[in-house]
Write a structure and sequence with these properties.
Layout lengths: L15 H26 L10 H31 L14 H28 L8 H4 L6 H35 L1 H14 L7 H18 L2 H23 L7
Helix pairs in contact: 1-2, 2-5, 3-7, 3-8, 5-6, 5-7, 5-8, 6-7, 7-8
Amino acid sequence: MNSPPDPVSRQLPLSGGDMLLILIFGLGAVRVLGAIIVVGLGLTQPGQTLDGSRVLLATVLLLVVQTLAILLTIRVIAVRKHGVSWADLGFRPVDRRWYGRAVAIAIFLVPAVALVNYGIGQIEGKPFENPQIYAIAPAGFTWPGLIVMTLVAGVAAPFAEEVAFRGLFFPWLRERIGLIAGVAISALAFASLHGVPQLIPSLAIIGAVLAVLYHRCGSLYPVMLAHGLFNAIMVVALYSALAGTTTPA
């Protein structure tokens, strides 16, 4: 196999302070907004019946705001302030074979994540429960919910997250602390900033696999495909289960 292309055409000229600002304003601030939405909808009040369509709308709005916040923050701090190009962030053409590999990786991640979550449930002595299920499908199975969440989780969220974590944060770390540590720390940051402690192990595995994929192919396009396809598969599987059917092929 040929040696992997350099994922970054030049060293990213960002300081630790710049990276911290991006994480705070592009990612952390959205968590505050999420908390406000949760309180506003009364999710912290046990026993209150909520309108599933309102919760779905709030989830979609939060994901869209997160996407815009991440991209805007990166544009202001990395692109405009330091002159980082979008090519430096991974938007470069790649051999078409990597797209097939990305699809295979996405399919592989589905049982891998299920196995990790099952193991967590065994350790805890109870079936694993994904706390994101209610936010993804608060009204149970509905066609609008399935379509909207598949698009948002499969396109918008992966786009922004890959620019931030694999296009920017991982290469920045790799230049300073090496490949293995860069993969590990960027994966843990990716998992932790989702704000769901139960999902940190499985999300960290996803983050590590996507970082290695980016390191090998040197382009964000296959990485976004793998991330988006995995998310879409999980959303479709959840809605199919709620509908009492098998997952569509």
